[in-house]
Amino acid sequence: MMPAKRNRLDQLRADRSEVENHYIDELAAGRIGRRDFLRRGAVVGMSSALMGMILEACGSSSSSASSSASSASSISASAGGPKVGGTLRLALLAPGAQINPLTTNDTGNVMLMQTGEYLIFDSNLQLRLVPALATSWSHNGDGTVWTFKLRQGVKFHDGSPMTADDVVYTFQQNSDPHNAANALSAFQGVLTPSGVVKRDTYTVEFHLEAANGNFPYLVSSDNYNTIIVPKGTDFSKWQSTFMGTGGFKLQSYTQNQGASFVRNPDWWGGRTYLDATRFVFYGGPSPQVLALQGGQVDVIVQFAAAGGEALLNNSSYNIVHYEASVHRELSLRNDLPPFNDARVRRAVALSLNRPAMVNALLRGYGQVGNDNPFAPQFVSRDPSVPQRVQDIRQARQLLTAAGHANGVSAPLYTEINQEMPLLAQAIKGYAADAGINFNLHVETQDAYFGKSTFGNSDWLDGEASLVDYGSRGVPNVFLEAPLTSSGPWNAARFRNPTYDRLVRDYIAAVDLQSQRRVAGQIERLLLEETPIVIPYWLNGLTATAANVHGVNPTALPQIDVTRAYIG
After folding, report:
1. Is the four-CA dihedral 211, 370, 430, 348 of positive or negative sign?
2. Model confidence over 248-291: pLDDT tens digits?
3. Domains of the chain
């Protein structure tokens, strides 16, 4: 590095925290690239302007930082510039239950974002955290207390101002174990209601139960239930108002049919290009594809490559695709035979031809999985951990050693969602070659998820259960909710004290080297125990008509259309 640039970098380092300087050192030494620096810097609260100057001092283009933080309107932008007016029509798989910000756990999360907003937006396309209702955030040095500064001048749709009181109420409700909130999948063991503290009208502090280096992701759109609502909101009645701070307001909502929203003239973000949006609900993926082809809708919020071939490589449509941590997870009950023996669980995993699945079911829009929650895009994963490959002979040997020379049988439950019924068929076929007979139960999402509690859900109670997981920017939820001993989504009934300790260590780590070290131990433990099987990671896929621009999807799925336009 040239002396002048080194001096400039030293100046920028002078007032930074130990963790911030760690990431600056990692960048300067070439151990992380520009994209990962932007992602990690944003997590610990470094501004876009600061990161741009650091990149420039290290010899990278500062324009890269600014472009990463640019408006979503740059995505698929037309040469003629944004057009104002019109109604955007979007196709979506019908939500299975009432839209309640506390409990929604299916495509209803797409509905939350239409009128509600988060402290931070996690954009899969920009691959970094972007300020939303919070303008900045920082921690106390060890990641146990995080302070958020709120955007001023924000109003709810009824005209009332958004303040710290509303943010405190929102997160106290979402972290209260008595509410059965879906966000507890992220907050359990991390945040309690008493830890959410108002410091002043526009400052909120989160006092955590333990250090958490990735906490900003847990209060971002990653934790999709945490849209900010007015203090005192009755969540069970929220569907009648869709009260929020977003760029669109509710016009109408009809269960199983659709929803309409109109422009919010008082939105803090300025005028949306669209006058209105209209969502049409469908019972499956094929009708959505036909609706786009027939001109009945302009956007399919999310679709699978299998079944969507007519849209891919077709100039009549814009296809937005992006790497994501979307995955399918096969849980095997550790407390019930035959899967209470780890050798049987490993046999299931070894029977799968993962590259063939990626090619056949995803048409190549994905990456093979390795039966652990660290997606290829997660910078903290340990790349030295060997990839599991198909080995039918070894699978049969494991079954014989476990006392099942004649094979085993078990039911496998899954949901009607994108390519998942086809995946279940593929798993059944591969497993049969190893002597494992799965009896498939392919159910509607409503029947499959049930009440989403133990004892009331085929998802959580089935001997083998194949479920979908939306994308997250960090693996925390994937590590905790389905795999820790007290995890609310622990369909595998996996209880391993060593694993629990390693997850606590990983989450508490605020520097990348420590995260990678612990991640490797977690990955190897899960390969040995195999409580879950992750056959692949899916890229996010959103389709629009050729004249639609500026849509900003995430792979949860969600979609931000505040900067979308037609023309």
Report:
1. negative
2. 999 999 999 999 999 999 999 999 999 999 999 999 889 999 99
3. 3-69 (no CATH), 116-238 (3.90.76.10), 323-539 (3.10.105.10)
